[in-house]
Known about the structure:
CATH class: Mainly Beta
Order of helices and strands: HEHEEEEEEEE
Number of helices: 2
Strand order of the largest sheet: 4-3-2-1-9-8-7-6-5
Distance between the termini: 14 Å
Oligomer: single chain
CATH architecture: Beta Barrel
Helix content: 10-25%
CATH topology: Lipocalin
Largest sheet: 9 strands, antiparallel
Amino acid sequence: MTISNLVFSSSYECVVTRKLDSENIYPQSQLDQYKHSVRIKDEKNPELERCSFTPSEKKITCDRYKVDRVEVDKNVGIKKFYNFSSQFDVQLYTDLRFVENNGRGGISYGKCEKL
């Protein structure tokens, strides 16, 4: 995928394959149980959704966030989506890897699929 393809894309489903914070490295069993993911809607009014399994509801639920700013670094092939009120960002690479910085010391990594 080229930078130009990434700049004018649509939507992505991004599955978390590694998650850590200042106190934990989440084991695979927990990643499998909670099914953490990020959805990127890269459209005219971009949005991010952070999703995970909610045991009390017995289903995957998602929180939706308006993207306040999008930056594209054409030198290294990263598109970065910022949400300021929740203090987090998601970086999307041209090879569809992603990094989510939750703004409170947690980082998630994984791979996206274009929808």
